[in-house]
Write a structure and sequence with these properties.
single chain; 10 helices; 3 strands; 7% strand
């Protein structure tokens, strides 16, 4: 009997090795979902609202002007990857990972996060084409402009991106 148990453990380890690349690749392919969730939390200043301590999702919804049910789903998603922690049913707090989402800390990347989910960023990545011809920057293809020229014409992007880079 002990030999059978050893064989089962060996089989489970083999299956785990086979499934690991599938899981990792799937997480990478769906990374845009997480990017968008982080962007929304940054736009709503969730980390800033939690700076003084835990809050319920209803309190967060009220101060952020959002829908409590939708916000709860967002917070649960972000808690599942360690960005926030749900300490009681519907009550969340900051983690070490969410500290840089705060606007008023030296290590803040809040402004950069508020840029990453904006349509012009999504459009430029969505404009990537399969390689086969001359390679051109996606924004030049999509909008006909170099990226810095295009971004400089969008209200709020200049200040936000320079703040993100620490300029």
């Amino acid at each position: 009997m002990p030999k059978r148990h050893h064989t089962l453990d060996k089989e489970k380890r083999r299956q785990a090795r086979e499934i690991q690349p599938v899981v990792e690749l799937w997480q990478m392919a769906t990374g845009s979902f997480l990017t968008q969730a982080i962007y929304v939390a940054a736009r709503l200043h969730i980390a800033d609202h939690l700076a003084d301590g835990p809050m319920t999702v209803e309190e967060l919804a009220k101060v952020s002007g959002s829908n409590a049910q939708s916000l709860y789903r967002l917070m649960r998603m972000l808690a599942s990857v360690g960005i926030f922690t749900e300490i009681r049913d519907g009550q969340f707090q900051l983690t070490q990972l969410s500290q840089p989402m705060r606007s008023n800390v030296p290590s803040s990347i809040a402004e950069g996060l508020r840029l990453l989910g904006r349509p012009f960023y999504w459009d430029s990545w969505g404009a990537l084409k399969p390689l086969g011809g001359p390679v051109e920057p996606a924004l030049r293809i999509f909008k006909g402009l170099p990226s810095l020229t295009y971004y400089s014409g969008i209200p709020g992007t200049s200040a936000a991106s320079s703040g993100w880079r620490g300029e």
